[in-house]
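Z., the sequence and structure:
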Amino acid sequence: MTPEELNKFIVEDSITVEGITDEYVWYHAKLLSAKMSQWDHDFQKLVKVMESRHKEHLNMVQNALNENRILRLQLKEKNNEKAK
């Protein structure tokens, strides 16, 4: 692109910062900090719930595997009895 073509993308604008005081900035900074602390707290709660559910799911899978092993042994014994 030529510089002339690029000029149409250049925006010249000014921003007035008059009226924004230190108190205004600190007020919003403290609000944002409080929100971020709440988000951190909520995220930690979510992680704890997910960890407990993961443990529950692992127990469910282990129980299913144990039950499967027992049923296979019973089926094997039943097949051995029929073969005799």
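The chain has two helices and no strands. The CA atoms of residues 63 and 69 lie 10 Å apart.

Let me know what you think.
H.
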